[in-house]
Please model this.
Amino acid sequence: MAQGDPIAMMQRETRLEEGVVPTTWNGEPIAPGQFVLDDDALLFRAPNGPDFLYRRGAGATMQCASAAARNEAELWFKGSVYSAIAAINGLIPIHASAVEQGGKVIAITGPTGAGKSTLAAALATSGLPLFCDDTLLVALQNSASTLCLPGHKQLKLDMTAASLAGAKTAGRVSPIIDKRYSDVPMSTLNRLAEMETLIVLSEEETTEVKEISAGQAIAALLQDHYTVEFGQLAAKGGQADYWKSITKLVANVQCVEFARPKAAATFGSSLSELRSYLKASGAS
Model:
């Protein structure tokens, strides 16, 4: 469990400098596209570079062997590497985007491609400012609440999603990723905020928002994703302790499923139904 101020801790632990990063661990070669998370350290080699080495208390070192690797460095560091560092230091990274209302967090989870970022962006442009995109860090500092750290990276949307959400777009994320950095109203919270609602996305022919059990929410959070892998590897008691943390995470949170068609033509009406539900339930 993270102690003290998790925000300050993450700022300290994610200090990044350039230097030499080894390609072996305990004498064993680590190929591009592989990583080792070993107690208080991480060696992470992106498929086409860059390479990162992190040790608790010492920050991170990055090595880029090419201009292409340097172009991808921020994406890897603020994604996979950031999540691993958080997990090593006792936080729980989850695959979720989130918005903020009245100082509390509404988190949105679902499989890759489910529309988390698009929905969060649309909620932001309709009055609930963006709290984070794609990765949400949770601090379980007590049993009474689930506390969330403010987001650390820019919103990224493809052009179709940006149009649906009413988001302004800027430069392309990278030559190989067909998304653009996007601007929506942002939360001004710079402190830990309590998670009030967890929304699980699913695709159905009709729109429905309904409460689900903690078990269903836990199952959604345990879907195959690098945040789950890092969380399990970093937990001192392994998978069992990680599952206990996820159970605690949802214990004090309203869990709902938002089922809807993914067709662009129904996006606005589905969004309105979700907003109505959140307002009636007291989450907005």
